Amino acid sequence: MTSPTDRLAVVGAGPAGLAAALTAADHNIAVTLIDSAPQPGGQFYRQPAAALGARRPQALHHAWRTWARLRDRLDAHVAAGRIRHLPGRHVWFVEHLDRGFILRTLTGDDEPEVFAADAVLLATGAYEKVLPFPGWTLPGVVTAGGAQAVLKGGLVLPGRMAVVAGSGPLLLPVATGLAAAGARLAALIEAADPRAYGRHARTFAAHPGKLAEAAGYAGRLLRHRVPVLTRHTVVAAHGTDRVEAVTVAALDADGRARPGTERRIACDTLAVGHGLLPHTDLAGALGCRTDPARVVVDAQQRTDVPGVWAAGEAAGVGGAALALAEGEIAGRSVVAHLTGERPRIRSTAANSRTALRKFAAALDAVHTPPAHWAEQVADDTLVCRCEDVTAGAVRHAVTELGAADLRTVKLLTRAGMGWCQGRVCGPGVAGVAGCPPETVRRPFARPVPLSVLARTPSPTEGRQE
Length: 465
Known about the structure:
Layout: E1 3-11, H1 15-26, E2 31-34, H2 64-80, E3 83-86, E4 89-97, E5 100-107, E6 112-122, E7 126-128, E8 141-143, H3 144-154, E9 161-166, H4 171-180, E10 184-190, H5 201-205, H6 208-223, E11 228-230, E12 232-239, E13 243-250, E14 263-266, E15 269-273, E16 276-278, H7 281-286, E17 308-310, H8 320-339, H9 347-366, E18 382-384, E19 389-390, H10 391-399, H11 406-413, H12 426-433, H13 450-455, H14 459-462, E20 463-464
Parallel strand pairs: 1-2, 1-6, 1-20, 2-3, 6-17, 8-15, 9-10, 9-15, 10-11
Antiparallel strand pairs: 4-5, 5-6, 7-16, 12-13, 13-14, 18-19
C-alpha cells in the first residue's frame, strides 16, 4: 500500500508526538501520525480498550485533564482531515531522499505499507533499562513499566502479592497503582538514598507541583500500609514455576549489598525498574547524531539531519510535561520550515523545557542503579535471554578471550544477537562485561520478515506526487 505525500510524518503518538502533530495541524499542515499502539497517548496516557468497559479510567492516571484536551483536539483535527492517525503500525525504516522521506511500516499482520512526507518528527519514546540478577527470568518477574502497562491497558493485575523494586520516580505510580487496584504490596524497594535529594533542593523546590505529586504518592503508600525500604536492592528472586519470594539487602556507601542485611520477602510478582533509555533506532538509521544514547537536538528540536526533528524521551528522558513542551516547540519549528516563516517558539514552552530538563537531570543524579550491581550476578545467571548467554560466558569472553568492547563480546558469545537485538540485554551485558554502553546503529528499527523485504517497493514506487 502506498500513500500520497503529507507535509509532516510524526512517528509516535505519546505526549511529544501528539503535541507536535496538533501544533502543526493548528497551522494547517497535513500530518500523518503513525503509532504502534492501538490508541493514542503512549505509555503515560495508556487507555484500556473500550470493550473492557472501564467506568473510571481516570483513576489510573494523573494529569487526566491534559489528556482529555489532547484527545479532543486530536479528534477534531482527524475529523477535519488535517491529521491522519494510523495506529497499529510499526515504522521499521525511514529513507531520506532528495525531495523528502519514505517511511516503511508493518501492520500487526506484517502487512507492509509505505508513506511519504516532506518532514519527519521522531517521538519514539523510551524503553526500560533491564539489569539482570539471579532469578530475573522467573515468570512473575516483570518490568515496572510492564506492570503499569497491563494495569492501565488491560485492567489486569500481574499478581496478588507484589514487590516493586529498583530505582526511579516510576516506582511510585506503579506501586500506588497496583495497591489501589487491589494488589497487596509486600514492599517498595528503592536503591536511592533519600538524603541525595538535599543536594538538589533548589531544583526540586522550583517545582512545587512535582513535590505535591510526590507527596500524594507518599500519602497513598501510607494509606495502603506499604513498607518502604530505601537504600536497598533485590539481590535474587526465588521460585520454581513462578517467583515465590525475593531476597533484598541494604546497600553500603559504595553501592554494594551489605552482608548480613539480607531479608526474604514472599511475593508472587516482582515489578523492577532502573530507569528508561531513549529509543534511537530510527534516528540512528537516518544518521542523526546521538550523545550517548539520546538524539541530539538544537533549540528548535532539530536533529543534524535536515528535515528531521526529535522530541520527548527520544531526545532525553524527562517525563510527560517535558515531552509536551518539546513536542510543541518541534511542531512550531516544522511549521516554520515548511511555510518559510520565522519560527515562533512560545517563551512559556521554551522556559518550561529548560526548567524540566534541569529537574530531570537532578532526578537522574539521585536515582542511579547501585554502582556494583553486576557483582551480584552469579556466573550461571542468564544475561541474554534470547541466546541463552550466561554472565559466566560474558566474563570468560573478557578475561580469557580478550574482549574489550561490546561488539567483540557479542561476536564471541552471541549476546545481543537475538530477537531484541540487544535492546533488553544490552545494559546488563555491558555491566557484567565491564564495558561502556555503545550506541548501535541498525539499518532496521525492528525485525522484518524476509517476505516483507521481498515485497518492499522501491523509493520511487512509494512516493506519489
